[in-house]
Amino acid sequence: MITLFAATIILGLILTALTRRSRRLCGTIGVGTVTIMSGILFCVAYRVFTGGPRNLSKPLMVIPSLGAELTVSVDYLSALFLVIIGLVSFAGTLYSFRYMDLYPSQGIARFYHCLILFIAGMVGVVSVSDMFFFFVFWEFMTLTSYFLVIYEKEDQVVLRAGLKYFIMTHVGTAAMFIGAILLQTRVGSFAFAALREALSGMVEAHPVQLSFVLGLFVLGFGTKAGMYPVGGWLPDAHPAAPSGVSAMLSGVMIKMGVYGFVRFFFFLLPVSTHTFAWGIVIAACGAVSLFMGTVSALLQHDFKRLLAFSSIGQMGYILLGIGTGLAFYEINPLLSVVATMAGMYHLVNHAVFKGLLFLNAGAILYKTGTRDLNRLSGLYSVMPLTAWVTLIAALSIAGMPPFNGFVSKWLIYQTTIIGGISVPVFILFGVVAIFISTVTIAYFIKFFGTCFGGEMGSELETSLRPGLDVPYTMRIPQNIFALLCVLLGLFPWIPLQMIHAGLTGSLYGNSLPHLSSVFGMSEIGLIPMMGGVQAGVWFPLMGLLVFGGCLMVAVIISRVGSPESRSVPIWNCGEVYDTDEVRYRAQSFYLPLASHFERLVSWEAPPIHLKKPERIYRGIDFDKVLFYPLVTAMLRFSEMFRRTHVGIPQVYMLFQVIGFILVVAVIVWLTLM
Amino acid sequence: MTVWLALVFLLPLAGVLLLLTGFPSCFQGERASRLASLSALATLVAAGGVIVQSLGKPPAFFLFGRMPWIRTESKLFGAVLDPLSVLMLVVTVVIGFLVVFFSNGYLSSKNREHPVTSGFVRYYAWLLFFIFSMIGLALSPNLLQFLIFWELTTICSAALIAFYEDETSFRSGFKALLMTHIPGLFFIVGLAFIFVYTSSFEFASIGRLPGTIKVMVLICLLLAGWAKSAQGPFYTWIPDAMVAPTPISAYLHAAAMVKAGAFLIARVFTAGFEVGSGIGLLTATVAIITMFMGLVFYFVQDDLKRLLAYSTISNVGYIFLGLGLGAAGSLVGLRGGLLHLLCHAFAKTLLFLSVGAISYAAGTRLISRLSGLAGSSPLLAGAFITGVLSVTGIPPFSCFWSKFFIVVGAFELRSTFGVILGILVLGESVGAFIWFIVVTQRVFFGEPREAGETFAFPFAIKLVLGALVILTLAAPLLGIPFLEGVR
Amino acid sequence: MTTTISLAIVNLLLVIIVAPFYEGVIRKLKAVVHSRKGPPLRQPYLDLLKLLGKERLEVGGNPLFSFAPVLTFGSVLVAALLTPMGASPPLGFAGDLIVLVYFLALASVGIMLGGTSTGNPYGALGTAREMMLAMVVEIIVVGSLIVAVIHSHSFDLMHISSWYRESGPVLSMVIAAIPFFLVLQVQLGKLPFDIPDADQEIMGGPFIEAGGPSLALYKWSYFAKQIILASLFLEVFIPWPKTGVIPVDILINLVKVLVVIALVGVIDAVNPRIRIDQAVRYFIGIWVVLVFAIAFALIGV
User: Do the chains contact at B408 and A622, CB–CB below 8 Å?
Assistant: First the structure.
């Protein structure tokens, strides 16, 4: 399998390089390569889920000095992530086939090269069981995504975004290096199993050092996952990248940070008081990200930036779920399992609906050429299909039943509130989460309402790209994801089973409760049991059925009078206005609330102006400090001697006489001694 | 085998002689470059033969000759083939050939920055002589031969720095000569002490010295090494040496000559005797101070070559740090330092030669006057970016592996000092990375300074850049397994 | 099984048929307070019937405009099926408290989608205000209910009410009832908080372009929400008396709802409308009360 994968990559790289003159051909080869790669990933995942974790028996590369071995091992957790990677990569690449027409002046082969290598990097991150090679692939993934972010390399804004991204993630990774090496020096090896021993050893002996290491890892993984303060690169980098890539960055790459969290905190860290403490820390970070991210999204009028902030917020949900799971491990194991599964399920859901949202945003950008919500309106008439798909995505992210977002958010609310009965601070987190879900509805209304509702202004109409909606290669991935949103919401059982399998081997160990004791009556609905009491219930199919029935009733009622239809223009109190004049622009939404939040959210670090410290440069400029003075001193010293050469022979004879007397005196003194 | 060794030594000499005597006449003037390239290529082949034959065999000595007025046990001159010398030989000869070939294209009247129309023979003669001296240094079996070739390289360096023969070049050349030679006197002093106490010039004989003498001798050798490698307070000659033609800067002052000081210390530390952790920590401390001194100067540079010079200072500091860690007890650190010697040589040469290509085609190497070059030459952009990523240590590029080894080595000491060292090293690495990415973006990305400008490079330049990219990527793959055999 | 279906039908009938009656009560009450005679109690039925027969006006060509009222009313009906109106909620085996709250939220979303779909600036303005109110108010609704959840350890409505019946009045629940009641005004679109539907200021807000059957469905949704929210409030915070005989319980519930609705109507009659920013600040103050309630709940009082 691995050779097949590697061969596909290499073949793809070569062929795209050869066909770089023809955009269509190169694109086809690129898409084909990624399709084959995704197919391989799905096959591997399928084999793992049906047959058990698979490892390569021999490591691919060994570095004995470090104790690092490139062992490829795919367990259930990795398989889950492989599925996500394969899915989102395939969608994003197929989408990019036509989307890249927006960049006619850039080389297309470069794009597909970076994309293929990027996917390879992500696959590498989840498939190795050795920390050193994990880092190698991690940084490689960052590197290739950097080149994808700055694809439009003439634009200074894009360049700065890429720079911020690369530097922030690199610093985070360097922090992780320190932590990992500190662990490695205890056991001499970077393999996950060895690191587990190292961590167990440190629990009793060096708790402070352990906290330091854990903090470094939280920092490092959090930077990639978009945790609030350190994820500040997200709002700049995701809009700067081409939209297919943004979908992959937001849909999969930041999930790699969560993979790191889960792998490290659930699989490597032994159970101790640290589990509880760091669970609360992670949950708190999640709650903060939730709040700050979503509230910032509310204030944006560049819709890709809005979606990027929304990603920060949704990652907060995931971290909240996982943190809750970690913290309640000893207090209420069933609750803990539900919470972890809820967090992971939100991860899967978020990959789907955020990927979809970015693809939609890209479609809007493709069609209209602008990202400014203030200038958009009435796009329904030119992009009806995209509008429906965006509606599904927006309803999913807002957590409306019966879509997938509802299920994971529902589970998170339940676990935090019921967990909060024992540990009160989780009630706060739960309340923040619920509040934020309303804010999520708010910004999606703003986004959807301004883009698709209403009528198109005349200046927008003239700048549109012709053709119905967007090309079908861009629509197919969107439709697939929309379908998934619905399916994942109706049949949560399937992903939950995969996630439950993914937790085997983790700190739950052998005491992982069987899935049916966690969720009673699970095939068609979810009844989380936490502490013996039925905590809640949701039967998606039943709910959908009833909802459909009620909709029918509503339709029947509305048709009962069999009225006629007539088409009329908008009523502006009788006056006729140009649409552009009276349109309610996006930035006017929520103004009173915005003033409350803006003070909170737009705190930026003051720009650091480092004046070049002149004194330091003068101090270490050894030329001036040391060498030149030395040389000058020596020259002056020899200058002194030069003055004795006066050129008068009589003086020289005087020197000789004096010298002779001196020498004789010394010899006489020596012989007398 | 001896035949191959002899060829390795004699072929560059032969080249020099042929150039100087002006025979054959078809190779005069500009065509001197072809003769030099042939000679360098032949040396490369010969060295390849030597290395292939020595793979897998234990270290071997090939010695001849004595000096009648110095009584020693073993013969004095010749070559030794062990992992360290093979490493240095590879670096010297491969990069030597590439630099010579690059100069074919670079040193011409079409060079927009420094058009050259005369002095070719002088250039190539000194260059080939330098290759010869470096080979002698790399293969030295003992400290005496090492010293002799050490001084020869100093002379070559001074001559080549002053190639353009203007006021600043002469001054810089003279400065380099003084600043490397005077601490070289410490080398002679140390060597004298060694001979007086042990009657031998072997590297291992340092271990037989009595305690305080040994420390003193080690410090003398360290001082000589530091001066040659531009560490500590002795760094000031390198930035000024950048007035040399770029291939020279690449070869002498990035790949070979500055590594000679590190190579000396490497030889001394791996000679099989107990160096003592005090010396090790001293080396490490000076190294880390040098690294940060170099870093501090990055941010005020406008000239790309001077930036690279300061980067060289920092990176050779890494090598010294690795060696110091090795002396303090960390094997991983030692291997890291040596791996860095290999990887940095290739990566830095790549960077310098890319800058050379930039100045060849664009006429300037000032950052403030360059922008948007990626559109002008994708090959150049690719080469430069590969170089930057390699030098700053981004996986999977070369110097990442060596830097990581060194950091692990620092932590392996398990003392607070080691941890602090490791964190400082990572900090410097991140700082260098930040600045280099910013510079890369300024120079290569962004709006092109002249729309639609494309660069046309002669074949020599293109081939060398391409070859170096491949070598830079391959260096860690070959180097890591190779170094498993050290100590 | 048959109980469930019959309860479902009962709930739906209550919501569809009986709900407009309560609206009539409010209008009559308001008139009496204003010293007017007021419309007859059956006036809302007449309004709805009239609207159902009127022309359907399509604005803007966006099918969401016609779909939004259907969405709103449909969500409200599902919410009705999830609400206990004297007896257990018929759909209680398929959805719990949070599902109920979210279906009500979905109804609001429907209103907002309808408001923005035409491009009428008043519509969008009304939508924005509705959303801002929802942001500060939803959390109060859920927060009050969380107090109950903390005590009963479950989100299932039947567990909550049976717990409360068993344990008797509790301080934190009494405190939590107050914000929930205040929020009823907002959810039902009554003064002083009928900001999104401000007839005089913004011409009806999201409903400006709705006419005929669409407007009928919107109005019907509001009527239905009255019963639903009042029933929810009563079932959670005042679940007495309970006889156990289902038809009797349903009747008792209807009487209690009448009392609540009457209170809502009186408040509506005597208050002016306040501005959106004032409303936001007011409710942020209510959050503080809720925090106390939750704190008390956590310590078990």
Answer: no
Backbone angles phi, psi at B281, to 5 degrees: -70, -35
With CB atoms and an 8 Å threshold, state whether B395 touches A627. Answer: no
What digits encode the pLDDT tens for the residues C253-289?
Answer: 888 888 888 888 888 888 888 887 788 888 888 888 8
- The C-alpha atoms of residue C174 and residue C162 are separated, in whole angstroms, by 16
Say how far apart CA C106 and CA C28 lie, in whole Å: 30
Task: Supply the DSSP string of B387-444, one letter for each residue.
Answer: HHHHHHT-TTSHHHHHHHHHHHHHHHT-SHHHHHHHHHHHHHHHHHHHHHHHHHHHHH
Mutate to test the interface with B, among A20, A63, A152, A159 (most CBs of B within 10 A): A63
Is B280 within the bounds of a domain? yes
Q: Taking CB atoms and an 8 Å cutoff, what residues of chain C touch A589? A: 124, 128, 131
| Structure token digits, residue A437 | 């879900």
Give how far the C-alpha of residue B196 lies from the chain's centroid of Cα atoms, to the nearest Å: 32
| ipTM for the whole complex | 0.89
The torsion angles phi and psi of A72, rounded to 5 degrees, stand at -95, 115
Q: Given CA atoms A239, A241, A246, A250 in this order, what sign does their dihedral have? A: negative
Query: How many Cβ pairs within 8 Å bridge chains A and B?
Result: 95
- Chain A residues with CB inside 8 Å of C105's CB? 400, 438, 441
B473 vs B458: CA distance, rounded Å: 23
State pLDDT tens for residues B155-208.
988 888 888 888 888 888 888 888 888 888 899 998 888 888 888 888 888 878
Subunits with at least 3 CB pairs below 8 A relative to chain C?
A: A
Q: Which residues of B175-305 form beta strands (DSSP E)?
A: none
- Residue C280: its chain A contacts at CB < 8 A? 592-593, 596
Task: Report the pLDDT value the prediction gives residue B471, as an integer from 0 to 100.
Answer: 85
Q: What's the confidence (pLDDT) of residue A616?
A: 66
- Taking phi over 0 as left and psi of -120 to 50 as alpha, with beta for the rest, A22 belongs to beta
Using a CB-CB distance cutoff of 8 angstroms, which residues of chain A are in contact with residue C93?
A: 537, 539, 542
Contacts of B408 in chain A (CB under 8 A): 65-66, 181, 184-185
Cα distance between residue C109 and residue B201, in whole Å = 89
Residue A163 and residue B389: Cβ atoms within 8 Å?
A: no
Parallel, antiparallel, or unpaired for β B60-64 and B77-81?
antiparallel
What is the C-alpha to C-alpha distance for residues C77 and C90, in angstroms, rounded to an integer?
12
- Tokens 């001054």 correspond to B171
Task: Write down the mean pLDDT value for chain A.
Answer: 83
More confident residue, C159 or A597: C159
Host domain of residue B461: 275-487
Between B105 and B147, name the one with better pLDDT: B147
Q: How much is the pLDDT for A531?
A: 58
The CA–CA distances, whole Å, from A536 to A451, A514, B162 equal 37, 19, 84
> Are the Cβ atoms of B405 and A627 closer than 8 angstroms?
no
For B265, half-sphere exposure in the C-beta direction (CA atoms, 13 angstrom radius) is 38
Q: In percent, how much of chain B has pLDDT > 90?
A: 10
Which residue type does A355 have? G
Decide if B347 is inside a domain. yes
